[in-house]
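Batch manifest, entry 17 of 40.
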Amino acid sequence: MRGMDQITLGLDPLPKKTRKEVFLDEMNQVVPWAALVSLIQPHARGAHQALGGRPPFPIETMLRIHCLQLWWNLSDPAMEEELHERPLYRRFAGLEGAARMPDETTILRFRHLLERHQLTPQLLAAINAGLAQQGLMLKTGTVVDATIIAAPSSTKNLDGERDPEMHQTKKGQQWHFGMKAHIGVDAESGLVHTVIGTAANVNDVTQAAALLHGEEKVVFADAGYRGVGKREEARGLKVDWHIAMRPGRRRALDPTREVDRLLDKVEQLKASMRAKVEHPFRVVKQQFGYAKVRYRGLAKNTARLTMLFALSNLWMARRQLLGTRG
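Output type: structure tokens
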């Protein structure tokens, strides 16, 4: 046994990449860094500069740190600490061997820069333009849906009140407090093209028309969007709305009648198309950990959600993107 220990101790461990390393390596290849930096650069002008008049960190470094924050749902102070503690994060951000690290205020200022100039929808559009060039977004159909993002309902905080921009809504038999993320998704690929943030009590159907990009011919939605074609904002749209049948009505279908069997088959086909919208929700909520709002106010959280969905598009399409590059 002693001899085996001595032999083993003399060998280096096999180089095995951790899941984080593999994830960052893949995302590093598929994120169009140069295109995103070119959108942010004109608005920067030292806004991301560290305190004390020291030279600012490069935009790409700050963008990479912002992405790290989103992927692991980190606060500004936690992100600062992680940069000091994790060589992997420093390497990804281009800070390996750097004399100093961005502090939490510098990280916060960069996030505020994106919010102030409403840059996240532009970043989403730039990412999607690249995906469309690869033939990954066909734009002939859209699936619309919404999900609730919970907000703290407690008043035990510094202000002694809940976020006034968040509201409660009833879903089934349960009450939820927070906001809604409404998304329009490409029906073929399941990639998100439009993001709207509202209070949780805003009815899904009111946002349906705004979730379309204008080039689609068909739109799929669940039963909560019934009557959308009659709404003022939807008039003039040349699309076919395929809205799910209400669950009660579908349960009442008689399987012994051929017409009812055909109707049920149609509902199954609609449901298979609507299922595409669940994938980006799952990535953002479960993989990126954004099940609860991080900030107060709709604008900040919507900006974060828009960037999260943009990154989820790249994550979902990474196999095809890496395949074309490889």
